[in-house]
Amino acid sequence: MLTLATGPGGLICAFRFGGERPVRLNWDDIQAPAPVAPGQFLWIHLKIADSRIHDWLERVDDIPPAARAFLAGHDSRPRLHITDQGVYGLLVDLKMDAGDADNEKGVLHFYMDGSRLITVRRGALRSTDSLRRLVEEGADFDCTPALLARLLQCLSEGFADKLETLTDDVDDIEASVLSDRKETDRSALSAVRRQLAEFRRHIHPERNILGRLCTLGHDWANARALDQLAQVIDGLHSLGANIDALYERAKLLQEEVASQMAEEMNRNLVVLSVLTALLMPGTLLSGIFGMNMEDVPGLRTPGAFWYVLALMAMLGAGMLALLKKLKLW
């Protein structure tokens, strides 16, 4: 058995279930675990950035080599692998503190069998933090699939909270668009659509692959836990539908903003065209009388300048009347 320093920073928390209430374990309990009694199992939550966690994963001989390599890997797309020994896969979750909206998603690798659930992450995630708090408050589970179902529920709740925030943003933008459009509406909608597109890219494949968990045939996956998994996965399907609906709503609002901008531009072009038409006769007349030739009419006539100005005004008024008659303005 591998011996490492006590309490590496990569061990976030560990609990043993199956008693009156969950029992917190330390690193020594993980390195040299006592035999797991019937009805008991472990949850081990790790941070893979610690090299000692890598060493521990390489030496745990009762986990399939492919699963150990997967837990320490850098995959970023949702996936699920079911073997005779257990289940391992990857979930996309929201980070705890994401300052950048384009970088708020993290990944969680997990391995589950009848005696333990091992979760591995790089950055702090909302789902595992919520689950840890629930366990510390005394939440108990009767098997590893039930624990995984609660983890998935925490994940779904995190995305639902984020979706509610985006819905509020879209509501505010919609009110602005329908009343007095602001210059920030278009960029704000683009940011919302970008986040929703990211959610769709991960939630849809995640909910599809997790559906396979409901068909686990292992003896440690009892019917009650599989029902819980099915209910949580149904919730993910509902979440995916809500994301699609909000994405389409944001898309329609963005098209409305584009339509308003095009309409405003058209109005401006009409005004410019009318002004051009009104000034065109005067411009033509001033160009003619501005020729540097000796025989230009009125060159030496007293008051000719005012006659030309009056003629230009009359031509402008006539052009305006013509535009009104043609209903072009």
TrEMBL record:
Designated name of the protein: Magnesium transporter CorA
Coiled-coil segments on the chain, per record: 236-263
Record-stated family: Belongs to the CorA metal ion transporter (MIT) (TC 1.A.35) family.
Keywords recorded for this protein, A-Z: Cell inner membrane, Cell membrane, Coiled coil, Ion transport, Membrane, Transmembrane, Transmembrane helix, Transport, Zinc
Entry-linked Gene3D superfamilies: CorA soluble domain-like, Magnesium transport protein CorA, transmembrane region
Membrane topology: Multi-pass membrane protein
Keyword set includes Transport: yes
A molecular-function term among this protein's GO annotations: magnesium ion binding
Any single Gene Ontology cellular-component annotation: plasma membrane
InterPro entries the UniProt entry points to: CorA_cytoplasmic_dom, CorA_TM1_TM2, MgTranspt_CorA/ZnTranspt_ZntB
Domain of life: Bacteria
Residues that span the membrane, as ranges: 269-292, 304-323
Protein localization: Cell membrane
